[in-house]
Amino acid sequence: MNYNIITYFIYGCIMVFIIYKIGLICYRNGNIFVLHLMPNNAQLCLYINNILLTGYYLVNIGYVIYSISTWKTVYNPHNIIDTIATHSGGIILILAVLHYMNIIVLQLFFKSQKQYV
Length: 117
What we know:
Elements: H1 3-37, H2 42-69, H3 77-116
Helix pairs in contact: 1-2, 1-3
């Protein structure tokens, strides 16, 4: 039995769900955050939020594909659980770091813009 195919399928389903749900939550809540930083320009806030969402999807899809390409061969059900847990945990950690980096960069950018106005 080929455990790699089963692992790819399970990992793919989990990652699609996680990437979609977290992207939707960050998109909805992020729009409010960006609007708070620039209260006078709602349309630009929407554009920034759309760009952040697009970048989020591209980075995560790229990481999932890269992650699958670096897997070792899965030999038994124990390896299925280990591989899925390790790679899912890695992408969730990367998501958290990227999310906080976006918040910090946007905060610093708009703070510096207020000094010049």
